[in-house]
Every structure is written in structure tokens, then in C-alpha cells.
Amino acid sequence: xxxPILSQSPAADARLQAPPAGLDPQAPRRHxxxxxxxxxxxxxxxLLNAISRRGLDxxxxxxxxxxxxxxxxxxxxxxxxxxxQICRDWRVMVDVIEVLQPIDLDREPEQAPRTI
Length: 116
Fold this sequence. Notes:
Alpha-Beta Plaits; 116 residues; 3 helices; alpha+beta; five-stranded antiparallel beta sheet
């Protein structure tokens, strides 16, 4: 099975790894999402709505902001299809500066985020 297409960059997609053997690749797994965004009115709400629209529950949400930019960190149980949809939704938002590659916490909890 091919990994989900998360970006328009083949190099970024090539870094994705297949799920460990014995696990259902479509089963929800915990992922940490990090997004940098312009701190404009309603921007954080739009980012969070992209996740809740998919019917996913937040395990943890943390938002930090200063006058110009903010950073959203969310831990969500999602399958590969939802991950791809959420990342695509965020990338087309005007207020989004950068979307970091989601980290599979069930597989690689200590890995540093990478830009996609």
C-alpha cells in the first residue's frame, strides 16, 4: 500500500515510513501536528475546525502566539487518509505560514518535526 500524499513535494513524501508490521495501516494512530500561522482574528479557530470537521477528537491542544505569529500543536488520533486531508486543508489557508510533517507518536515519539 502506498503512503498518503501529504505534500506536493515528492522528496517530503518519500520520507514517510510504512506502519510497523502487524498493525492495520488504516487504524487511527496518535499523531502530533504542528502548524505556524499568522496571528489574525479567527485563524486558530479555522485551524482547529479543519480537524473537528473530520470527526476527530483532540487528545491535546496547545497554542502559543505573539503579536505576529502563533504555533498550534495538537495531538490527534488519525488514520493516513485524515492526516492527508488535514494537511491539505491547512496548506490552502491564507493564515498558515508552515505545516510541519505530522509525527506518529505510537512509532517515533522523540523525533523532531520536519517541514513538509
